[in-house]
């Protein structure tokens, strides 16, 4: 079992990695050319779909907000450990993974294309959630 401090560091590092992925996607969404996608054209198809926005907000922006929030909470938790902060981390991580499940469902069953960067972000959010859960067991 890993310590709560190590788990929090993992949350912070993965949140920065997720922030880089979401920022890259935000940049790619802003340019008119094809998205750099290691797996083909799936990223462009997903970007062109009506599901690339949620209530008018670009999905990469939501990712940026999610990862910034998780990284900020990890920093706050190192300075001022509180059960409330950890509970907030857990709530936000569960919401992030839940939203990722919804988006992945849309990619597979509605859009019919997979975005490599979206899946990578989803995997990162799952590992962040698992790290939050592991930290909770060590409180």
Could you state the order of secondary-structure elements as H and E?
A: HHEEHHH
Are there runs of 5+ residues with pLDDT below 50, and where? none
Number of domains: 1
Beta-strand residue percentage: under 5%
Overall pLDDT confidence: 92
Taken from the alpha-carbon principal axes, the silhouette is elongated
Strand arrangement across the biggest beta sheet: 1-2
The helix content, as a percent range, equals: over 70%
Commentary on this structure:
With 139 residues, the protein is an all-alpha fold. The protein has a single domain (4-29, 36-137), classed as de novo design (two linked rop proteins) (Up-down Bundle), CATH 1.20.1440. It is built from five helices and two strands. It has helices spanning 4-30, 42-48, 59-79, 83-111, 116-137, and strands at 53-54, 57-58. Strands 1-2 form a two-stranded antiparallel sheet. Strand 1 and strand 2 form a beta hairpin. Helix 1 (4-30) packs antiparallel against helix 3, helix 3 (59-79) packs antiparallel against helix 4 and helix 4 runs antiparallel to helix 5 (116-137). The longest helix is centred in the C-terminal third of the chain and has 29 residues, at 83-111. The protein is elongated.
């Amino acid at each position: 079992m890993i310590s709560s401090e190590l788990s929090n560091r993992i949350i912070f590092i993965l949140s920065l990695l997720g922030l880089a992925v979401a920022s890259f996607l935000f940049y790619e969404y802003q340019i008119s050319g094809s998205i750099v996608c290691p797996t083909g054209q799936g990223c462009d198809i997903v970007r062109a779909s009506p599901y690339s926005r949620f209530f008018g907000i670009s999905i990469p922006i939501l990712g940026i907000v999610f990862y910034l929030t998780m990284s900020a909470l990890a920093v706050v938790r190192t300075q001022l450990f509180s059960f409330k902060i950890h509970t907030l981390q857990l709530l936000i991580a569960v919401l992030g993974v839940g939203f990722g499940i919804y988006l992945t469902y849309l990619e597979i069953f509605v859009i019919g294309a997979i975005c490599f960067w979206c899946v990578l972000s989803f995997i990162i959010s799952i590992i962040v959630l698992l790290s939050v859960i592991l930290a909770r067991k060590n409180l």
